[in-house]
TrEMBL record:
Organism: Actinophytocola xanthii
Molecular functions per Gene Ontology: ATP binding; ATP hydrolysis activity
GO cellular component terms attached to this protein's record: plasma membrane
Gene Ontology biological process terms from the UniProt entry: response to antibiotic
Domain of life according to the entry: Bacteria
Native organism taxonomy: Bacteria, Bacillati, Actinomycetota, Actinomycetes, Pseudonocardiales
Keyword set includes ATP-binding: yes
Subcellular location: Cell membrane
Name of protein: Spermidine/putrescine ABC transporter ATP-binding protein
Record membrane topology: Peripheral membrane protein
Length: 305
């Protein structure tokens, strides 16, 4: 495996067409070893087509894609043994058993993970001899993750990795992804759970209509959103109109001061404190609310996840 920081996945000006329809129109990004990139966007944004080209499942119509320094379409047999791919639909035979599937995939790898240890980590031990068709949605999802990781891949593609999982399994999966990153694995993640992307991703790419709408670290994207609020709670009936800033009444005794800008927080708090002093008002709650990745997503795409 290459050193952390070196490029594992390179996508440059990628175009994917289906007949006359352009699904991906000039997308570029890189995923380094030891990095997690979250590819986000509403349904139909082009995420799946982009990832399928990276996985070597379809050729690009135009542009350059390199995974581990090779073209994943033309050098498919050389690239695929080093990839771990987790799909929402795992493609497992309904009568196959998790233990059998994990052991089979491990047998193809030069240095696989220990099947028993991985099964224990993901809570699969009680189901190793259960037919796939009898597993719950969350159990299948954990199995799909195990199948993607058992070969000790250098690059991992995770499609909605925690969909259908309970809270405990979700956090276990997050910890596994963080361990993959720390061990130098490159991770390309697609998810509709924006808190998941905000926790795991070093870089985020939000797609819209087949193109990159915005890209950057979660911290940079939320900072650039420029939306910060101060929530102030006090008793009802005070002359809040005397506050010189925009105040929107949310409920009796609770008000919102919005759109502070980069330098406005100190002035707002100073104004609120002086106003409270004049009116002998006691603040029962003051909170600053910073934008989340979900706020950025909604602003960029105009729709929910």
């Amino acid at each position: 495996m290459s050193a952390a920081g070196e490029t594992a996945v390179e996508v440059a000006d990628l175009v994917v067409r289906y007949g006359s329809r352009t699904a991906v129109g000039g997308v570029s990004f890189e995923v380094p070893f030891g990095g997690v990139l979250a590819l986000l966007g509403p349904n139909g944004a082009g995420k799946t087509s982009t990832v399928e080209v990276c996985e070597g499942y379809r050729p690009p119509s135009r542009g350059r894609v390199r995974v581990l320094g090779r073209d994943p379409w033309f050098d498919h047999e050389l690239v695929v043994p080093h990839l771990g791919v987790m799909l929402q639909s795992g493609g497992a035979h309904p009568l196959a058993r998790p233990g059998e599937m994990m052991s089979l995939l491990a047998s193809f790898a030069a240095e696989p993970l220990d099947v028993g240890e991985l099964a224990e980590r993901l809570g699969l031990v009680p189901f190793l001899r259960t037919e796939y068709r009898r597993l719950s949605g969350g159990e299948k999802q954990r199995l799909h993750l195990a199948m993607a990781l058992v070969g000790r891949p250098a690059v991992v593609f995770l499609d909605e990795p925690t969909a259908g999982m309970d809270v405990a399994a979700r956090h276990t999966t997050w910890e596994l992804v963080e361990q993959l990153r720390d061990s130098g694995v490159a991770v390309l993640l697609t998810t509709h759970l924006l808190d998941e992307a905000e926790r795991l991703a070093d870089q985020v790419v939000i797609m819209r209509d087949g193109q990159v709408a915005v890209a950057g670290s979660p911290a940079a994207l939320t900072a650039a959103a420029g939306i910060e609020r101060v929530l102030v709670r006090t008793r009802a009936g005070l002359p809040v109109e005397e506050l010189t800033l925009s105040i929107v009444e949310l409920a009796p005794g609770e008000y919102e001061i919005a759109d502070l800008g980069p330098d406005g927080l100190g002035a707002v708090l100073d104004t609120v404190v002086r106003w409270c002093h004049r009116h002998d008002a006691v603040l029962t709650d003051v909170r600053t609310v910073r934008p989340s990745l979900e706020d950025v997503f909604l602003a960029v795409t105009g729709c929910d996840t």
